[in-house]
Amino acid sequence: MTQSDRPVALVTGGGSGIGAAIARMLAKDHAIVVCGRRIEPLQAIVDRTGGLALQADLSQVRPSIDIVQQVVDRFGRLDALVLNAGIVEPAAVADMALDSWQRQIMVNLTSPFLTAQAALPHLARQKGAIVGIASAAAKHTGAGLAAYGVSKAGMVRLMQSIAFEAAAVGVR
């Protein structure tokens, strides 16, 4: 284990887009861990920011939980969690395959629940914070966005629930 004197932040979906931008910003004062499906973009982020890249398929239960323990095993702490990983597979409700629905719900809502649940005891010790990235699709729909919108609306409510429950132990 490598102890970190700096706060440690885990960013899911940290290899590109919003997640990569968040990782670069947090790297100014945090040791950064980025995770995602493809190692190459993750490695490019940690090459610029330092930190650790973890390849993880968050469409699966076990990796969604295990990433937290990997961070704690490596750094001895977790101070911030950014739940940014997300997918969209546009399809009309009438045409959407069940596996597409389930994959979007898993990556965009169930995985954040599992990761947050695993992280909460560590975040409580550090008086840390969780940020969940949602979307305008949480409030407004469009063609083919049923599963995505439902999952992002669920993310908003999940973050509200965590904020309400975890405030008592100092997690923001």
Present the secondary structure layout.
Elements: E1 8-12, H1 17-26, E2 31-36, H2 39-49, E3 52-55, H3 61-75, E4 80-83, H4 98-126, E5 129-132, H5 146-166
Parallel strand pairs: 1-2, 1-4, 2-3, 4-5
Helix pairs in contact: 3-4, 4-5
Can you give keywords for this protein?
172 residues; alpha/beta; five-stranded parallel β-sheet; 5 helices; 5 strands
What does it look like?
The structure is a single chain. The protein has 172 residues and is an alpha/beta fold. It is built from 5 helices and 5 strands; from the N terminus they run βαβαβαβαβα. Strands 3-2-1-4-5 form a 5-stranded parallel β-sheet, with helices on both faces. α4 links the parallel β4 (80-83) and β5. It is globular. The two termini are 26 Å apart. The relative contact order is 0.15. The model has no long low-confidence stretch (mean pLDDT 96).
Query: In order across it, which strands form the biggest sheet?
Result: 3-2-1-4-5
Total DSSP E strands: 5
Main sheet summary: 5 strands, parallel
Look at the structure and give the mean pLDDT.
Answer: 96
Overall radius of gyration: 16 Å
Shape: globular
Helices and strands, in N-to-C order?
A: EHEHEHEHEH
Estimate the helix proportion, in percent. 40-55%
